[in-house]
Design goal:
This protein is mainly alpha-helical. It has helices at 7-16, 29-32, 46-53, 85-97, 111-117, 127-140, 164-168; strands spanning 21-25, 39-43, 169-170, 175-176. 18% of the residues are buried.
């Protein structure tokens, strides 16, 4: 059995619908173990599933991996910025209040440099936000197999020439876009 995209949101939906058990590919084990209250088993082959269902063998339970979050550009820290007091203050206010921010200026003024440092001052994800963010990455196929749940806020910087499908979602196979 091969790992597939979207196991986390599928298992969360199964739990909401009243299911109590699920069998998933071994490659999705860390992701599947995140859903509490659901007995998630992992299988390497269909033969393993058949043996489990006939009572000849037991499948191992999905084990929750250490919560690991990729460094989404957090090598950039706002503390490294010298100068730009007004822009730094605007970033701090936007981060503290959860506000949007639009930066305008000539090339080389430091807009991108400041934007890349915004995640370093944002609060950590709540458990609900971590689950939602991880589910989006699972559906997109960008959640690493060793990662069960993301713990850091992702930083996205779409290019201004990105297509509508890249921004809003779509394509073949269908994937979430930058807006998600």
């Amino acid at each position: 059995l091969r790992a597939v995209r979207g196991v986390l949101p599928a298992l969360a939906s199964a739990k909401r619908l009243g299911f109590t058990r699920a069998i998933i590919p071994v490659g999705n084990g860390a992701e599947g173990a995140v859903v509490a209250g659901l007995d998630v088993r992992v299988a390497a082959t269909l033969g393993d599933v058949l043996e489990h269902l006939t009572g000849k063998a037991q499948l191992p339970a999905a084990t929750r991996a250490q919560v690991i979050a990729p460094r989404f550009g957090l090598e950039c820290d706002l503390a490294d910025v010298r100068g730009q007091p007004a822009a730094r203050r605007a970033l701090e206010i936007a981060a503290a209040g959860g506000h949007n921010m639009l930066m305008m200026g000539p090339p080389g003024a430091g807009k991108t440099m400041l934007a890349r440092r915004l995640p370093s001052i944002l609060p950590p994800l709540t458990s609900e936000e971590a689950l939602e963010t991880s589910a989006i990455h699972s559906v997109a196929g960008t959640l690493a197999t060793s990662v069960g749940l993301l713990s850091e806020r992702p930083f996205r910087a779409p290019h201004h020439t990105a297509t509508a499908a890249a921004r809003a979602g779509g394509g073949l196979p269908i994937r979430p876009g930058e807006i998600a």
